[in-house]
Amino acid sequence: MSTWFRDLPPDCVALADVAVAVIAGAALIRATRRLRQPAVIWEIATGIVLGPSVLGVFPGHLDTRLFPVAQRPTLTAMSELGLVFFMFLAGWEMNPRLLRSGRSAVAVTAVSAMAVPFLMGAGLAFALASDHRGHTSTSAFVLYFGTTMAITAFPVLARILRDTGLDRTPVGVLSMTCAAFGDGIAWCLLIVVVAVAGSDGAGQVWHTMLLAAVLGSLLFGLVRPLLARWAAGTEQEGAQGAEPGERRPDMAVDTAGNRAFLLAGSFALLCGCATAWIGIHPILGAFAAGVVMPRTVGPRIREAVEVPLARASTLLLPVYFIVTGLSVDLKTVGWAGVGELCVIVLVAVAGKFVGAVVPARSFGISWQESGALGILMNTRGLTELVVLGVGHDLGVIDDRLFSIMVIMALVTTAMAGPLLRLIGIQAPGIPESPAELADAPSLSGSAGTAGPDRA
């Protein structure tokens, strides 16, 4: 690459890098549309191609010239902003009623689908720790690796269920329940891992956990009721001046929607700031902010919040894939790494299948639906990539295992569509971009009850 690019002002280089990330990702997604894979697959692949694994192979270190090391902190900050909005929307998408289901079949399957892959992953972690543990303790490595195996990408799962028409079927509700429960526990475990990995001793770990508990209590005990009152007031404001049964005036909706957008966006950022301040990753605060958001907001107000946040996330997330791809170097994996990749993929897939299919069959669910549940639980997508990025940044895992785990996330997510079609369930397209998730109808009413959740 010519030297003129390196001589550009730093801000110019950073903005050009963002444009390259967005255009390259969009181009690859469009070129591979017929393969009917989630968009996240090709976005991750774009990051790997533009990183040292592919672009870095060519003479002249093209990857470092296109994405200079000096500009990577700026790119990382931009990508984290996109992640904060994405995790906020993912938390808002979750249905708390699913977690409160009292049916024994749902409860047992949800616990099993989380516990079995976690335990299998933790067992495998003991064998990998000597070669791949970073500068943290073995206990943190084992806890973290088990968590990565238990992750299910809630957003991509929701989209698959919509595309296949399974969102209001028993297996669809069951899979959403398992994913919601598993991801909730996984994020709690990740808080523990971050506290352990980022602390100098047991005293600091307990201090971080105490602050996290206080923050969680404030969010769910104080902020959530206040947000519920705000949501009710927003609906009343939008309804003023309209006759019963009529649509609210567009002017009132626009005004209320703009205020709701500013409030929600600021709330996500402040929660991310709070968790970063106490020593936990900002995405965990953003996710918690989404979970405590009220479900009583009307569809037009909710759209006014979700759509712009999703568009902003869509613009900035490709930068995250580039930043991640710059840390993935497949040249360092080697033949030993290929063997480890096969074992990790096998354990990841088997853990989810055993954990989901066995209890489902024991409660009389058909083989086809049980198999679909096991397949759906293996969709890891961007959620897995986020967890991997947190562990890699903290030094819990080394560079080689990080590269292997990114490939594992790609493989297990990519296999969902073909395997569903193999067992007779059609998946016409499985995109996973925040904008597409916002455009689709909410699953908040998919809990098998009459009407949407109003928690």
From TrEMBL:
Subcellular location field: Membrane
GO BP annotations listed: proton transmembrane transport
Cellular component terms per the entry's GO annotation: membrane
Region feature Disordered, mapped onto this chain: 434-455
Keyword vocabulary terms for this entry: Ion transport, Membrane, Transmembrane, Transmembrane helix, Transport
A Pfam family: Na_H_Exchanger
Domain Cation/H+ exchanger transmembrane: 23-421
TM spans (from-to): 12-29, 41-62, 74-92, 104-129, 141-161, 173-198, 204-223, 261-289, 309-328, 335-358, 401-420
Presence of the UniProt keyword Membrane in the record: yes
Predominant location: membrane
Protein name (database record): Transporter, CPA2 family
